[in-house]
Each structure stands twice: as structure tokens, then as C-alpha cells.
């Protein structure tokens, strides 16, 4: 699903209005009417009838006046409050403000502190608040009276419908600019925006509906959109044809495990099989080979040179031989990391140009020497802690600048990055950003990352590009977790529950 930044949205509107000649006031009419229809649905469902529209001074406010006009025509008790003076309104917004004034709809300014008391009382007596203060035109932080109005909206505990973007939310980053409206529902115009899809934006947007307002969809390509929300439409699994054998579905070599982390190797290898990989070979320290082989009937295991239960650099030649007869490689789950094995990981990456998934301790092994991955067919799957070690950035800096951090990393190393978090973000070497739409907090459990690494490896082994393997991997990993949640809830969910629901998740595609 296409996602546009505020800058791209403005470019699209400019082409639509100035080049194609679609009247801007028509776009505003559609935006307002689509929002009004959503409000009407809520009023009917909840058997309510009184609405307050709070409009800012720009076109987001203009949408709000159109909402008010439609609701008034449907017999709704509607009042409009401006966070600025009537005289400050111009353009399309002014045309619609004049119309509602001419219709005798109640309009009042809330520009002084003494007005706030009156607004508070009116809010208390109303059922639904329409937030039309700021949309994609927000710049910098919100302060003053408007900030107090937003805080009043949030404390009123009413149903809130935000026009285009919850006011105060940065449309591009999802950051809160001083304060932001917590919406029950957001009706966003024509295309999703990145800030609605990652935290904290997700918490403020509530349920998001994309309203069609008449802008041609093809304009998104014209402005070179590069953000996408991964939905089931994007991850259809190709049908398997009859005359195939397991070799057609790829041979993966997984290098994982150590004496006190055998489960990670198990989960990764088992997940790769479950996600359709034709043949999985699992290389582990020889002292744990029998333990791991136990539950892994479908996987061939290899016990390699080790030191005290941790793979040692002496295993390099055996690994390179195994790589010869494999299509893709995954390194990391449960490896543990110390100087010796870090050198092993470094030398494996250095000596192959086959697609490689680097997860967990394989990432830690490359801290400070990432140049070895430059331009290779490599997918890295760090969570914020691992990303912090790889980049030297603090976790909060990463969390608050997901897209920038991901893009900077990709620009530098030209690989595929899967930045795992509450909302996992993928950045590809072509500069595209994908945000996942599946998954739930139950999946924040030990081993969940090992399962994801196995799934991404499986798609790579089946011939998917790094970009597609990452996208399919995160989508179906989250989907498996969503199915698991139906059976075991979020608290009781384990990585095994996710793993066991991989087949069910994949079946959703066919
Ligand atoms: N351009 C168009 O033709 C359309 C625009 N639409 C609506 O118009 C919105 C964009 O309208 P605008 O570009 O006028 O901007 P907004 O209406 O989002 O912003 C309102 C105004 O607030 C001021 N402002 C911004 N940040 C502020 C801050 N931190 N403190 C105080 N004042 C601040 C700005 O001067 C801006 O003009 C969209 O979000 C959408 O809702 C839609 O109706 C679709 C059509
Ligand atoms: K808004």
C-alpha cells in the first residue's frame, strides 16, 4: 500500500490542481464529506447527535468547515470553534467558512484564555470532536492556546475524529510535536503517511481510514513514492507447480547455536523448513550436535570445530566447504560472541557472495568492521539494541528517527536492513522503505527473532530477492504471531507458538 510523505503529498496535490486542473476546493469538498460520513457512521452506531469541529487556520481547518456543513445538513447538532481569528482564514478554507456562516451554523473563536472555559463546557456537553486544527502543514512544535485546546480534547474523554492527521503528529516521523490529539479514528486523505504507521504515531491515530478524495493514484509514482505499508496484497506466494523437487526450493546453510543456546539454532532451522525451504543444513559446535539433532528430523546437522561449546575460527574451512553446496546462508542465532567467533563470522562474510542473513550475534561480531558487508547480498536483522551497537546511536535516537537511521545505514552499506521493533521497518538498497502491518506485542518473546531469521532465509532460498525475502519474512512472521495470539493470547505466547503457526500463516496467501 502506497505511503506518501507530507512533501510528496504536497507535490501530488500541486500536480493534480495546477497541471491536471482538478479544482482544489473540490478536493476539500471530498475530504470534508468523506470525514463527515465517518462521523455520521459513529453517531448512528453510538446513537449520538452532538459534534464540535475545531478548525485551525489552514486547509485542514477548511476540511473541518465542510464536515460541519454536511453534518448540519443531516440534522446533527454541530458547533465550530476556530483556534485563530476569523480574519486569518483565506483561500478555499475561507470560501467554506463563509458558507457555514451564511447557513447560520454556530462559529466561535477560541483565541483568548477566557474562551477556554467556554470551550471546555461545550466539549463536555458534546459527543464527538472533529480535530481539524493541523494536517500535513504542521511545522515545529505546538504551543500557546492551541496546545491547551489539544490537551483539553485529550482530557475530555470523547470520541475524536482527526482530519488527515491527528493535530500535533509529525506526518513523516510519527513524532509528537509538543502535544498531539489522541484520535479514536483518523480519516487520512488519499494516501497513508509514514507518521500514522510507526510509534508513537500509531497510538495517536487510532483506527486509520484512507479517504479517496479524487487525486489520481498514478501521481504517487510520478513523485517517486518510496514508502510502503506491507499488506497481504504485497505478499502473494507464487503457486508451486507439480514437477518440482526439494532442490527447487533451495538449500540453506544455517550457522548457529552454542552450548547454552541450542534452542536458537533449533528455532531458526525449524522455521526455515516450515517456511518452505527445500533443504536445511545446520552447522553447530560438535558438542551440541546430538542435542540439537534430536528434534530436527527434517534438518541435516553438522558438528564443527569448537572451543568450549562455541564455534571456533578453525571451523572456517568446513563452513566454506558447506557454503559451496548451499544457495543461501544464515548466521547468528545463539552463536554467542567472543573475539574468535567474531573473526569466524567476519571471514565467512568476506569469503562468500551468496545471499546471507545476518542475525543476533553475527551482527555483534561485525561491530566496528561493517565495511565487509558493503554492497553484498546481505540482509541484516537487528533489533534496536543490536542496531545501537552497529551504529553507535543510542536506542532512543534510533526509536525516534527510525526512517532516517535506516536510510542512512542503507545509503552507506547498500544492503537490506530489517530494523525489528514494535513496527518493523525494512530499508532496501534501492532506497525503498517498507513498514509491516502484522504482528502483536505477544511476539516480543525470546526466540521470536530466531524464527524470523529462519523465515527470511527460507524465502531467500526459494529464490526471492533480498527485498522480497525480507518483506515476506516479516509479514508472515507477524501473521503467524497474530494466529498464535488467537490460541494462546499475548502473555502466554512463545517463539514455538509462532513457529507452529507458520504453515497456517502461509496458507492465508493461497
Ligand atoms: N491542498 C489541498 O488542496 C488540500 C488540502 N487538504 C487539507 O489541507 C491540509 C494541509 O493544509 P495546509 O497546508 O493549509 O496546512 P494545515 O492546515 O495542516 O496547517 C494549518 C496552518 O497552521 C499553521 N501552523 C503550522 N504549524 C504550526 C505551529 N506549530 N504552530 C502554529 N501554527 C502552525 C500553518 O501556517 C498552516 O497554514 C491537509 O492536511 C488536508 O487536511 C485536503 O483538503 C485536500 C486538498
Ligand atoms: K487534524
UniProtKB/TrEMBL annotation:
Entry-linked PROSITE patterns: YJEF_C_2, YJEF_C_3, YJEF_N
Positions with a binding annotation for AMP: 420-424, 449
Cofactors demanded by this protein: K(+); Mg(2+)
Binding sites annotated in the UniProt record for K(+): 60, 131, 167
Ranges in a coiled coil: none
YjeF N-terminal domain mapped to chain residues: 9-221
A GO term for molecular function: NAD(P)HX epimerase activity
Subunit (UniProt): Homotetramer.
Function statement: Bifunctional enzyme that catalyzes the epimerization of the S- and R-forms of NAD(P)HX and the dehydration of the S-form of NAD(P)HX at the expense of ADP, which is converted to AMP. This allows the repair of both epimers of NAD(P)HX, a damaged form of NAD(P)H that is a result of enzymatic or heat-dependent hydration. Catalyzes the epimerization of the S- and R-forms of NAD(P)HX, a damaged form of NAD(P)H that is a result of enzymatic or heat-dependent hydration. This is a prerequisite for the S-specific NAD(P)H-hydrate dehydratase to allow the repair of both epimers of NAD(P)HX.
Name of the protein in question: Bifunctional NAD(P)H-hydrate repair enzyme
Amino acid at each position: 500500500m502506497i505511503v506518501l510523505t507530507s512533501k510528496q503529498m504536497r507535490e501530488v496535490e500541486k500536480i493534480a490542481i495546477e497541471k491536471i486542473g482538478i479544482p482544489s476546493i473540490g478536493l476539500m469538498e471530498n475530504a470534508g464529506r468523506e470525514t463527515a460520513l465517518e462521523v455520521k457512521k459513529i453517531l448512528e452506531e453510538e446513537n449520538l447527535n452532538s459534534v464540535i469541529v475545531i478548525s485551525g487556520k489552514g486547509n485542514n481547518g477548511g476540511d473541518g468547515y465542510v464536515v460541519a456543513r454536511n453534518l448540519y445538513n443531516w440534522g446533527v447538532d454541530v458547533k465550530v470553534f476556530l483556534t485563530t481569528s476569523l480574519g486569518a482564514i483565506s483561500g478555499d478554507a475561507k470560501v467554506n467558512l463563509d458558507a457555514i456562516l451564511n447557513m447560520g451554523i454556530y462559529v466561535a473563536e477560541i483565541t483568548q484564555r477566557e474562551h477556554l472555559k467556554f470551550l471546555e463546557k461545550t466539549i463536555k456537553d458534546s459527543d464527538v470532536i472533529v480535530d481539524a486544527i493541523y494536517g500535513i502543514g504542521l511545522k515545529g512544535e505546538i504551543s500557546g492556546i492551541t496546545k491547551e485546546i489539544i490537551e483539553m480534547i485529550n482530557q475530555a474523554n470523547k470520541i475524536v475524529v482527526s482530519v488527515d492527521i491527528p493535530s500535533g503528529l509529525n506526518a513523516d516521523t510519527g513524532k509528537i510535536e509538543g502535544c498531539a490529539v489522541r484520535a479514536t479514528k483518523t480519516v487520512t486523505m488519499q494516501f497513508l503517511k509514514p507518521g500514522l504507521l510507526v510509534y508513537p504515531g500509531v497510538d495517536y491515530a487510532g483506527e486509520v481510514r484512507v479517504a479517496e478524495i479524487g487525486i489520481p493514484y498514478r501521481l504517487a509514482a510520478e513523485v517517486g513514492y518510496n514508502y510502503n505499508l506491507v499488506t497481504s496484497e504485497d505478499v502473494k506466494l507464487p503457486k508451486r507447480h507439480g514437477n518440482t523437487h526439494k532442490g527447487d526450493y533451495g538449500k540453506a546453510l544455517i550457522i548457529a547455536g552454542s552450548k547454552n543456546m541450542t534452542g536458537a539454532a533449533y528455532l531458526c532451522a525449524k522455521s526455515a523448513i516450515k517456511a518452505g525451504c527445500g533443504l536445511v543444513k545446520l552447522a553447530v559446535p560438535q558438542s551440541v550436535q546430538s542435542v540439537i539433532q534430536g528434534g530436527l528430523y527434517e534438518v541435516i546437522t553438522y558438528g564443527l570445530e569448537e572451543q568450549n561449546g562455541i564455534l571456533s575460527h578453525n571451523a572456517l574451512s568446513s563452513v566454506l566447504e558447506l557454503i559451496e553446496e548451499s544457495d543461501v546462508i544464515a548466521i547468528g542465532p545463539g552463536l554467542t560472541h567472543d573475539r574468535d567467533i567474531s573473526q569466524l563470522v567476519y571471514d565467512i562474510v568476506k569469503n562468500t557472495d551468496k545471499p546471507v542473513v545476518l542475525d543476533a550475534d553475527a551482527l555483534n561480531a561485525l561491530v566496528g568492521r561493517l565495511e565487509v558487508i558493503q554492497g553484498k547480498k546481505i540482509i541484516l536483522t537487528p533489533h534496536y539494541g543490536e542496531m545501537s551497537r552497529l551504529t553507535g546511536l543510542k536506542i532512543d535516537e534510533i526509536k525516534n528517527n527510525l526512517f532516517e537511521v535506516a536510510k542512512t545505514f542503507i545509503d552507506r552499506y547498500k544492503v537490506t536492513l530489517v530494523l525489528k521493533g514494535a513496527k518493523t521497518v525494512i530499508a532496501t538498497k534501492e532506497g525503498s522503505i517498507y513498514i509491516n502491518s502484522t504482528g502483536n506485542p505477544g511476539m516480543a518473546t525470546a526466540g521470536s527473532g530466531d524464527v524470523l531469521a529462519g523465515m527470511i532465509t527460507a524465502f531467500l532460498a526459494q529464490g526471492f530477492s533480498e527485498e522480497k525475502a525480507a518483506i515476506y519474512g516479516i509479514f508472515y512472521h507477524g501473521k503467524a504471531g497474530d494466529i498464535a495470539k488467537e490460541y494462546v493470547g499475548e502473555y502466554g505466547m512463545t517463539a514455538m507458538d509462532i513457529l507452529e503457526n507458520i504453515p497456517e500463516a502461509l496458507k492465508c496467501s493461497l
